Amino acid sequence: MSKSTTIDTTVIKKLINELEHLEELKLHILRIIPEDMLPYGSKLWWEKEVLNGEEEIKKGKFKTYKNAKMLIADLRKGI
Length: 79
Hints:
Layout: H1 9-32, H2 43-58, H3 68-77
């Protein structure tokens, strides 16, 4: 047996706004929590790693390769 509920669109908009605000708070908290405080491999750990990676990209701390051979050469050097 299926039940359905009707929700007013203004309530839905408020809920969506609140969820967006909570997501912003979560990202802010993740930025200030030390990595070693998050369980390795957990969902929050991965989200923090993604944030860290995005910040590195914004700072220009990345290298591009023309081909796989050049990438492998750098990997062997330990760069």
